[in-house]
Design goal:
This protein is an alpha/beta fold and 189 residues long. It is built from 5 helices and 6 strands; from the N terminus they run βαβααβαβββα.
């Protein structure tokens, strides 16, 4: 009846009591994704520009051509949006979690300084904002290591690597690293 690696039942009608401090009944984690500049694009050596992950209706990528419309959306995020949202959180005394794409942070290191100053938790969200489904395990491991190194260097803090489309987590060398489910299953799935 197919592969059943997903849990569709959970705790059902009998969830555990998390016993949160002060009897709180809600835990809220505010997360900001920062991937600006790490998307597909000829300037990054890709054969096509991003055409799916944006506020613009998806369209087929045009081989070898930049998509200035998409580029401007992502650039707005790195030039204006990130600073606006960090300022809003700071005004309210909130330190959000930042899902950081390594290449995006490398392109705008001042964001790393601001994230550190704000006391944000950082999670590695891949080296590039690309589809990791077709990336081999060796390259994926290189991307994970590069992402963690970049985030730790530019924020001065520890990084938990959550990866992009990465679902199996293991501890290696005292750091949390993520590996693709296909690699973990030996491509049996």
């Amino acid at each position: 009846m197919g592969d059943q690696r997903r849990d569709h039942v959970g705790y059902g009608a009998d969830p555990p009591d998390p016993k949160w401090p002060g009897g709180a009944r809600l835990a809220l984690n505010l997360v900001v994704n920062y991937e600006e500049g790490a998307e597909y694009g000829p300037l990054e050596g890709d054969g096509f520009a991003e055409s799916m992950l944006s506020e613009v209706a998806p369209s087929p990528p045009l081989p070898g051509l930049r998509n200035r419309n998409i580029e401007s959306l992502y650039e707005y995020g790195s030039r204006v949006g990130i600073w606006r949202i960090l300022r809003l959180f700071k005004e309210r005394g909130i330190a959000p979690t930042l899902y950081l794409v390594g290449r995006a942070l490398e392109l705008n290191p001042a964001v790393g300084e601001a994230v550190a100053e704000a006391g944000c938790d950082t999670v590695g969200h891949g080296w590039r904002w690309i589809d990791y489904l077709e990336i081999g395990e060796a390259e994926e491991r290189t991307h994970i290591a590069r992402t963690v190194e970049t985030i730790e260097r530019l924020t001065g803090g520890d990084c938990v690597d959550g990866g992009v489309d990465l679902t199996v987590v293991a501890v290696e060398d005292g750091k949390i690293a993520a590996h693709s489910i296909d690699a973990a299953l030996g491509d049996a799935g």
